[in-house]
Amino acid sequence: MDTEVIESAIVGKIVIGWNSLGDLRGWVDELSPFKVGVLTNDVVAKFWLDAVLQSLDGDISLFLVRDGEDAKSIETAIEIWSKMIKNGFTRKSLLIGLGGGVITDLAGFVASTYMRGILLILIPTTLMAQVDAAIGGKTGVNFIGKNIIGTFYPPNVVLIDPQTLQTLPREEYLNGLAEVAKYGIIMDRNFFEYLEENARAVLAQDKDIVTNIVKRCVMLKVQVVEEDLRESDKRRILNLGHTIGHGIESASNYRIKHGFAVSVGIVVCCLIAEKLLGFRETDRVIGLLETLGLPTRHNLDPKRIMEAIKVDKKAWYGRQVMILPERIGSVRIMEVPEDLILEALTEVAN
Ligand code: NAD
Ligand code: GLY
């Protein structure tokens, strides 16, 4: 299958293709950097660092951080900035971020702030990062709250090789599938149907199907971000199920992964949309999510989730504004009364 190159002034150049990691050298040469550094973690390094280093030559600085969300911190950024200064990185240097969303967010943040911005290539290696985190220029570290400190900084190149997903733990692959299904529901009915028809191959991680779904999701996200980089309006649709999802993650003390929480959040939004917009396709959405191995119910106290949602919302808008489907493939942004949210959360509680 051909490698696809999406060129966009807003989100940078995005290259998607099976084995595209082998083309890294060409993309680096095009940027002709003064120095090159690779930022990754010990888990990803074990599987994919050799492939990256083999396609580069010269003196490469390695920035190795520990695995996990905790690495997305200002302290880690300080360690990397310090090493960059020590290794003589200038404004013409290049940072390559190799890993999941934690690494791509951190690499983007470090690259955007070091000497007011240096060259950046992202190589996302989780499904979550390939279809979401590495696309659209949001960078950040956690500070007191999640993603509190960050920038918008489109990378020069995002190099997506779906082959890297072959070493991903099953749970992480499923985690990314919730975001994949989300794109179908918010803006592409044909894609939703494609997922229904090919669910078995999606789960079997068929090479062509996985490459296709990554390409389609990236194109859809680029379409949204080109219209609204800074999330003043249209970009908010990417948050379908996320308000409820964050509440579920928080109420479970982060035992429930983001994608799984979003999956339940999507169902809750469908139930609310039945009442407010006459949405009639909840069963079909639940059918796809369950076929993809995603949860559609929770075991938590609905009131506890509601409290967590309110804390989250207080910090941002102070109102319960949600993304609701009017039909599969189309959503509206609406204010939702609290009692409807609690009712829907109770309906999907075990
Ligand atoms: P992650 O980066 O923690 O990766 C999940 C796990 O998979 C980690 O243990 C990682 O080491 C491992 N891993 C990564 N690639 C692998 C591979 N190919 N083989 C084996 N193991 C591999 O988690 P994630 O879900 O990718 O990303 C979550 C982060 O992304 C969060 O911090 C979230 O805030 C951020 N995010 C950002 C945006 C954005 O727009 N910037 C969007 C969505 C999520
Ligand atoms: N993940 C949501 C966004 O990029 O806006």
Describe this structure in words.
The chain has 350 residues and is α/β, with parallel strands linked by helices. It folds into two domains: 164 residues, Rossmann fold (3-Layer(aba) Sandwich); 160 residues, Dehydroquinate synthase-like - alpha domain (Dehydroquinate synthase-like, alpha domain, Up-down Bundle), CATH 1.20.1090. 49% of the residues lie in helices and 17% in strands. The protein is built from 14 helices and eleven strands. A hairpin with a 1-residue loop joins strand 7 and strand 8. Helix 6 packs antiparallel against helix 7, helix 6 packs parallel to helix 11 and helix 10 crosses helix 11. The longest helix has 21 residues. The structure holds nicotinamide-adenine-dinucleotide and glycine. Nicotinamide-adenine-dinucleotide binds next to helix 2, helix 4, helix 5 and helix 6.
> Could you list the spans in which at least 5 consecutive residues all have pLDDT below 50?
none
Task: Tell me the helix content.
Answer: 40-55%
Top-tier CATH class of the largest domain: Alpha Beta
Quick one: overall form? globular
SSE inventory with pairings:
Layout: E1 4-8, E2 12-16, H1 24-31, E3 36-41, H2 42-54, E4 60-65, H3 74-86, E5 94-99, H4 101-113, E6 119-124, H5 127-133, E7 141-143, E8 145-149, E9 157-160, H6 170-187, H7 189-197, H8 199-203, H9 207-227, H10 242-251, H11 258-277, H12 282-291, H13 302-316, E10 321-327, E11 330-335, H14 338-347
Parallel strand pairs: 2-9, 3-4, 3-5, 5-6, 6-9
Antiparallel strand pairs: 1-2, 7-8, 10-11
Helix pairs in contact: 5-6, 5-9, 6-7, 6-11, 10-11, 10-13, 11-12, 11-14, 13-14
Residues 41, 43-44, 47, 67, 69, 72, 99-103, 105, 125-126, 128-129, 132-133, 136, 138, 147, 164, 167-168, 172, 175 line the site of nicotinamide-adenine-dinucleotide (NAD).
